[in-house]
Amino acid sequence: MEILEVKSDKKKYLSLLLLADEQESMIDKYLDKGTMFILKKADEIVCECVVTDEGDSILEIKNLATKKEYQGRGYARKMIEFIADKYKDSFSILQVGTGDSPLTIPFYEKCGFTRSHIIKNFFIDNYSEPIIECGVRLVDMIYLRKEIG
Predict the structure, then answer these.
(1) How would you classify the pairing of strands 93-99 and 58-66?
(2) What is the pTM of this model?
(3) Tens digit of pLDDT for each residue in 47-71?
């Protein structure tokens, strides 16, 4: 298993990016300014992550996705650990914004994140189609944070 930085042709991974962010126009807002990493197992890419510098020593996970057949095996957790370790000397906070989903919130909490703040109606205001996870329509963006440095 290895984690590599992707420096060009990030759209090549669009199908994986769309697992975590269902609207391509939203991905376009952060993909060029973000740093992308892929996790490979043998010759297959199983997980990806895009992070951005949000200022004030905050690094934000904008996209984190694992191929469906590899979910639940710890790859996303490994990616978060890699990101936290790589950036611990440059940033003090790692944050992520996500919908109030029974899948994602508990995952991030198990990875050591705690709830920080909410942006009301984010998914209604920014996405052209409703996003449903586990039968729940995503409305507000829930931010979680973890100290890394």
Answers:
(1) parallel
(2) 0.94
(3) 999 999 999 999 999 999 999 999 9
